[in-house]
Specification:
Structural class: alpha/beta
CATH class of the largest domain: Alpha Beta
Helix content: 40-55%
Number of helices: 19
CATH topology of the largest domain: Rossmann fold
Number of domains: 3
Distance between the termini: 21 Å
Radius of gyration: 30 Å
CATH architecture of the largest domain: 3-Layer(aba) Sandwich
Bound molecules: adenosine-5'-triphosphate, magnesium ion
Low-confidence stretches: 137-141
Shape: elongated
Length: 450
């Protein structure tokens, strides 16, 4: 696992450089030696070493500043410092700046070999984890869909099943829960992705106009039909037709739609020409269709036809685990090319966001984050005062003090990140060091896995 890597040695002491080269060649690695920062930079123009061994004191610069340059060029670059006894403090500083480790001169060859092997092993594991996470993400994240909660995992599973079939899908959920996004995910993650995705809102038009939008019409087929027009059924051929707010479709059109779904063909208005339907159908509603059936506002036979595979998206207040990941996602989308780390979220603010009922669901959260970032003119943090207006609507707070609240908040983040401290820090928008410090001060090490 640790054999055969390319290693760059930057040390002006040629004896030390030679010793390192010999030692690491013994472990099967390839070494390249340079004696100055300038030579190292020239080498890095054309090479990407698996490890750089960097002396703390160099003739044309100090190792600490050079480390910063290296990390700027490639933040993932593993660097190990070589330090003489007198510069241990400097070497420690380098570790804070992202160097992996340091070896002290004079060193024992076994020790050097061991430290290098350890670094490659860790690097290998990290890459493996990243690859696995990527695969998992590809499978379940559907790119723009964020969700860590178990209820959303079930939604993702259904999307996957729906995407691989042509079954009629009914997506339900309150306003702003992501019904349209889910419908797009079904289309774009299946074999129809290269075909059109056509959406029509059934509540936006009066019955006759909606009918001609769906079916298309010949010129002169009704007053106002001044030209032949292709309808949505036809426009969506080979792709997906998304009928949004299906609960609002006028009754008389419902029976016509039912016929199209049963026979998979239709006539353009004012024409006898029969057109075969090759689109698949996805429907969405925030209405309770069963209640509408009882109230005779929705046809029961149409309901059974469109409800081939139901996908119910739970409201945001029932999946508070999704709130922080969504905020970070929205904030990163809104960074507009500026270098943007995660948003730093104050525990007291998060506590309010968790308890706020979010009647407008993800759309409301999105508006809130965008508005707040705009008002804060690029300051990337969420403080209690940013959410103060939500406090009255939030569920009453049991008498927690600030410390207990912060602790609860960390536990929550750790749970969501599977005990992975770096990821928990990412969710909270704080540095890894701060996260470790807090973990220690709250004695939460038992919640960590890494
Ligand atoms: N899981 C999610 N991940 C990322 N963004 C989401 C998610 N769910 C919703 N959104 C975002 O929230 C907003 C609302 O989503 P969408 O329009 O799909 O909701 P909807 O259920 O169709 O709402 P309505 O009932 O009002 O039509 C969109 O900007 C969408 O991108
Ligand atoms: Mg919608």
């Amino acid at each position: 696992m640790s054999a055969g890597k390319n290693i760059l040695i930057v040390d002006d002491n040629l004896d030390i450089g030679d010793l390192i080269t010999l030692t690491l060649r013994d472990s099967g690695h390839h070494c390249h030696q340079v004696t100055t920062c300038a030579e190292a930079l020239a080498y890095l123009d054309t090479h990407v070493p698996s490890l750089i061994l960097l002396d703390v004191n160099l003739p044309d610069g100090n190792g600490r500043d050079f480390l910063k340059t290296l990390k700027q060029k490639n933040p993932q670059q593993p660097v190990m410092m070589i330090s003489a006894h007198g510069s241990i403090a400097l070497a420690m500083e380098c570790i804070q700046l992202g160097a992996y480790d340091f070896v002290e001169k004079p060193f024992h060859v076994d020790e050097l070999q061991m430290r290098v092997a350890h670094l490659f092993e860790k690097d290998h594991l990290e890459k493996r984890i990243e690859a696995l996470e990527f695969q998992l993400g590809e499978k379940h994240q559907f790119k723009s869909l964020v969700g860590k909660s178990p209820v959303m995992a079930r939604v993702f599973e259904r999307i996957e099943i729906a995407a691989q079939s042509d079954i009629n899908v009914l997506v339900t959920g309150e306003s702003g829960t992501g019904k349209e996004l889910v419908s797009r995910a079904i289309h774009f993650n299946g074999p129809r992705a290269s075909g059109p995705f056509v959406a029509i809102n059934c509540s936006a038009l009066p019955a006759q106009l909606l009918e001609s939008e769906l079916f298309g019409h010949e010129k002169g087929s009704f007053t106002g039909a001044v030209a032949k027009r292709i309808g949505k059924f036809e426009a969506a051929q080979g792709g997906t037709l998304f009928l949004d707010e299906i609960g609002e479709m006028p009754m008389e059109l419902q029976s016509k739609l039912l016929r199209v779904l049963q026979e998979r063909e239709f006539d353009r208005l004012g024409s006898n020409e029969t057109v075969k339907v090759t689109a698949r159908f996805v429907f969405a509603t925030n209405q309770d269709l069963k209640k509408q059936i009882v109230e005779k506002k929705f046809r029961e036979d149409l309901f059974f036809r469109i409800n081939g595979l139901p996908i119910e998206i739970p409201p945001l207040r029932q999946r508070s685990e999704d709130i922080l990941p969504l905020i970070q996602f929205i904030a990163s989308k809104n960074a507009a090319g500026k270098p943007a780390g995660p948003l730093e979220i104050d525990p007291a603010a998060a506590e309010i966001l968790f308890r706020y009922p979010w009647p407008g669901n993800v759309r409301e959260l999105e508006n809130f984050v965008e508005r707040t970032l705009l008002l804060k003119r690029g300051e990337r943090s969420l403080q209690k005062e940013d959410v103060i207006s939500m406090q009255t609507a939030a569920e009453p707070l049991s008498d927690l003090n600030l410390e207990a609240m912060e602790k609860k908040f960390f536990i929550e983040a750790l749970k969501q990140s599977g005990g992975h401290v770096a990821k928990a820090a990412g969710l909270l928008g704080i540095s890894r060091d701060t996260a470790y410090r807090k973990l220690k001060s709250y004695s939460l090490q038992s919640y960590t896995s890494v």
